[in-house]
Specification:
This is Lysophospholipase L1-like esterase. This protein is of the alpha/beta class and about 250 residues long. The protein has one domain: SGNH hydrolase (Rossmann fold). The protein is built from 8 helices and 6 strands, in the order E-H-H-E-H-E-H-H-E-H-E-H-H-E. About 35% of the residues are buried.
Length: about 250
């Protein structure tokens, strides 16, 4: 039986579960899978998910951190900052200060904080090497905060399995169903829950002809990259007007 009786998840699209959809079109994602596993072992287990896609750290702090802390959960997960570092002109000092405030606030009210070292995009996405110094800075912040607050760290960055396109949705930014399943298992392993499969087991390599790759790159640019850039230029977000999918810490029923 798990010694955690409640979980609150805080963050952006990664934690909302974007690109892992149920038949009714709602997001599931790794946090829901973790909650389901913990609930199976703990009668009356409660779960809230405050994460909303597209949110910057400033918005996560303003909209999610205090409500999450007020719930005083046994377990709280925090993942944020990647949307910030992907934007031109990112103020790393401001991001660091807000991430630090969020983790400090959550650690003061929850029994256990879980943090994430984000997956390495440099071998999977062309052009991502330009933001690697910012990502490395974010990783260093996570490591420091984990030490300061005795947080559990889920290290996705060190696993080459996330280099595989087979774990990512068509937009190349969000995990697909299998990707979320593996993050859930990695999180459970970090929490010392008995393993159900090897989350970082390598996937078969699927070579792609250069012509097919070029065609796929063009389709991606039209369908996903163009709208993403347009939202950045106009100050809009995919999460504008969207409410959290599980705003209350209620018993988990699937």
């Amino acid at each position: 039986m798990s010694h955690y009786s409640s979980l609150v998840a805080v963050g952006d699209s990664f934690t909302e579960g974007m690109s892992d959809y149920r038949p009714d079109g709602t997001c599931r994602g790794w946090a829901d899978l973790v909650a389901a596993r913990l609930a199976a072992d703990t009668p009356g287990f409660r779960y809230a998910n405050l994460a909303v896609r597209g949110k910057l750290v400033r918005q996560i702090v303003d909209e999610q951190v205090d409500p999450a802390a007020a719930m005083r959960p046994d377990l709280v997960t925090f993942a944020g900052g990647l949307n910030d570092v992907m934007r031109p002109g990112c103020d790393l000092n401001a991001v660091t200060a807000r991430v630090s405030y969020a983790v400090r606030t959550l650690a003061a009210s929850a029994k256990q904080v879980v943090l994430f070292r984000v997956a390495d995009p440099s071998r999977r996405m062309r052009g991502s090497t330009r933001i690697m110094p910012r990502i490395n800075h974010l990783l260093a912040v996570v490591d420091r905060l984990a030490e300061e607050h005795d947080a559990v760290v889920v290290d996705l960055f060190s696993s080459p399995v996330f280099d595989s396109p087979a774990l990512w949705a068509e937009d190349r930014i969000h995990l697909n169903t299998e990707g979320h399943r593996r993050v859930a298992e990695a999180t459970l392993r970090a929490l010392r829950v008995a393993p159900s499969f090897e989350w970082d087991a390598a996937l078969p390599h699927q070579p792609q002809d250069w012509r097919d790759r070029a065609k796929a790159d063009l389709q991606w640019a039209r369908t996903h990259a163009g709208p993403w850039i347009a939202r950045r230029l106009t100050g809009r977000s995919s999460g504008d007007g969207r409410q959290p999918k599980r705003p209350e810490l209620d018993p988990f029923t699937g």
